């Protein structure tokens, strides 16, 4: 579980653990990972923390091997780490920030899937949930140049994985949530207030969608799943 220390990643980790999955949560903030692990263990679940920077492909590959060493197998991955920047337009964007967004939202997902794939094949019914964005499903002008490009590319990444790896039983889902009330909103040029957040999706809403995909029978593949709040205000 990348991005497992907060927001949608943390909620998905907790939901998966409650459903019986042994969960490995990763992210840069060790204290946040420890909190998630403690929450899972408090309700009788099993979890481990693997602090790492998802843009470090070597660390990601090492983490995949550590999951197998400590848990015995790797049956599924949920990729929830993401990044955006307030400077989102061609007129004000910073190329360093653009590269960071692309590295986190696309490069890190690619390296994580690459590292996990041998183990997902070995599982016989391995599954990957790539948490993308509404902007990866439908063009959203306010999402930004780099963010829109990176999230749109995830759709193709999932499609190629499904087309090429179906013979090994591997399944992947491009999960595209609309506005979600998390700290990620603080990366917007104008940060939404309490009233706007109140009508958004919650991390638990997204976690329920993730769990629907994770717990689907082995013969079922959810290629793409889009969820959004009823209110678009």
Structural commentary:
Helices cover 46% and strands 14% of the residues. It is of the alpha/beta class and 233 residues long. Strands 3-4-5-6 form a four-stranded parallel sheet, sandwiched between helices. A two-stranded parallel sheet has the order 1-2. The longest helix is centred in the middle third of the chain and has 29 residues, at 95-123. It is globular, with a radius of gyration of 17 Å. The two termini are 31 Å apart.
Describe, in short, the structure shown.
The protein has helices spanning 7-18, 30-42, 57-71, 95-123, 145-165, 194-198, 203-214; strands at residues 22-27, 46-51, 76-79, 127-131, 171-177, 224-227. The chain has 233 residues and is α/β, with parallel strands linked by helices. Strand 1, helix 2 (30-42) and strand 2 (46-51) form a beta-alpha-beta unit.
Number of strands: 6
Strand line-up in the sheet with most strands: 3-4-5-6
Low-confidence spans: pLDDT under 50, at least 5 residues? none
| Rounded Rg | 17 Å
Number of helices: 7
Q: H/E series, N to C?
A: HEHEHEHEHEHHE
Shape: globular
Largest sheet, in brief, is:
4 strands, parallel
Q: Structural class, from secondary structure content? A: alpha/beta
Which strand-content bin applies to the residues?
5-15%
The chain-level mean pLDDT equals: 96
Helix content: 40-55%
Distance between the termini: 31 Å
Index terms:
two-stranded parallel ribbon, four-stranded parallel β-sheet, globular, alpha/beta, 14% strand, 233 residues
Indicate the topology.
Elements: H1 7-18, E1 22-27, H2 30-42, E2 46-51, H3 57-71, E3 76-79, H4 95-123, E4 127-131, H5 145-165, E5 171-177, H6 194-198, H7 203-214, E6 224-227
Parallel strand pairs: 1-2, 3-4, 4-5, 5-6
Helix pairs in contact: 1-2, 1-7, 3-4, 4-5
């Amino acid at each position: 579980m990348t991005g497992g220390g907060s927001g949608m990643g943390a909620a998905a980790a907790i939901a998966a653990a409650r459903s019986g999955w042994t969960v490995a949560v990763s992210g840069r903030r060790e204290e946040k990972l420890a909190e998630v692990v403690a929450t899972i263990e408090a309700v009788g679940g099993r979890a481990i923390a693997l602090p790492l920077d998802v843009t470090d492909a070597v660390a990601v590959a090492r983490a995949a091997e550590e999951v197998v060493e400590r848990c015995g197998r790797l049956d599924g991955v949920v990729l929830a780490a993401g990044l955006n920047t307030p400077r989102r337009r061609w007129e004000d964007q910073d190329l360093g920030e653009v590269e960071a967004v692309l590295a986190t939202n696309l490069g890190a997902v690619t390296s994580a899937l690459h590292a996990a794939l041998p183990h997902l094949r070995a599982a016989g019914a391995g599954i990957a949930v790539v948490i993308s964005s509404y902007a990866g499903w439908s063009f959203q002008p306010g999402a930004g140049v780099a963010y829109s490009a990176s999230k749109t590319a995830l759709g193709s990444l999932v499609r190629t994985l499904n087309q090429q790896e179906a013979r090994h039983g591997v399944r992947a889902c491009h999960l595209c949530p609309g506005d979600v009330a998390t700290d990620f909103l603080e990366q917007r040029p104008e940060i939404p207030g309490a009233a706007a957040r109140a009508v958004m999706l919650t991390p638990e809403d997204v976690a329920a969608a993730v769990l629907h995909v994770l717990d689907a029978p082995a013969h079922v593949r959810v290629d793409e799943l889009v969820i959004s709040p009823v209110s678009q205000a």
